[in-house]
Amino acid sequence: MGKFLSLILILSGLLAGAAMYYLQVYGFYEDVELQPGRDVLLMPLGDGEPLPIRYSGFEAIDAESSPIRYRACFATDLKPEELAQLFVLSDQKEPRNAPGWFDCFDAEAVGRALAEGRAESFLSVKNISYGVDRIVAVTDTGRGYVWHELNDCGQKAYDGTVVGEECPPRPEAGEDN
């Protein structure tokens, strides 16, 4: 009887582990519906609303389970130095990893290109979700990458630090940003 119970416990643990792995890597992600002319936006220098740039070959995934799971890839004929004259640069140089099955987004390669000056990162949308900014990186070969990153308010809000007056009020439960 003890061996049977041990076997049930081991199998239950294996099934739970496999289910958790599947849900984290595959289960929550969905393809993002294309919005031509609205998928890739950059924040202009000075004040204003984010503006679209020319792009093609857009692919994106997202998950409702977390505001920082968004990843996207695209191609553009615009060069980083051209964009830097018109749009707000970002200090984010280390993109978040994407699931291995989302082939177009290699966070390590993008981070290396940013560190070596072969790419530049830009602010796309500030507070796309509370405390989360959308970042766009464009390489000198015309490849583009998009991800979400916690901003200062988001880091404070999620680590339990007092947010302070410089951050916008946090939305009530059930409200979307």
Structure, briefly:
This protein is α+β, with helices and mostly antiparallel strands and 177 residues long.
Describe the structure.
The protein is α+β, with helices and mostly antiparallel strands. It is built from four helices and eight strands, in the order αβββββααβββα. It has a six-stranded antiparallel beta sheet.
Salient structural properties:
177 residues, two-stranded antiparallel sheet, 4 helices
Sequence-ordered SSE layout with sheet pairings:
Layout: H1 2-27, E1 30-31, E2 41-42, E3 51-52, E4 56-62, E5 71-75, H2 80-84, H3 107-115, E6 119-129, E7 132-139, E8 143-150, H4 152-159
Antiparallel strand pairs: 1-4, 2-3, 4-5, 5-8, 6-7, 7-8
Oligomer: single chain
Gyration radius from CA atoms, angstroms? 20 Å
For the terminal residues, how far apart are their CA atoms? 55 Å
| Broad structural category | alpha+beta
Q: Overall 3D geometry?
A: globular
Task: Please give the count of helices.
Answer: 4
The SSE string, one letter per element, is HEEEEEHHEEEH
For the secondary structure, the number of strands is 8
- Average pLDDT works out at 88
Helical content class: 25-40%
- Weakly predicted, low-confidence segments: none
Percentage beta strand: 25-35%
Give the spatial strand order of the biggest sheet: 1-4-5-8-7-6
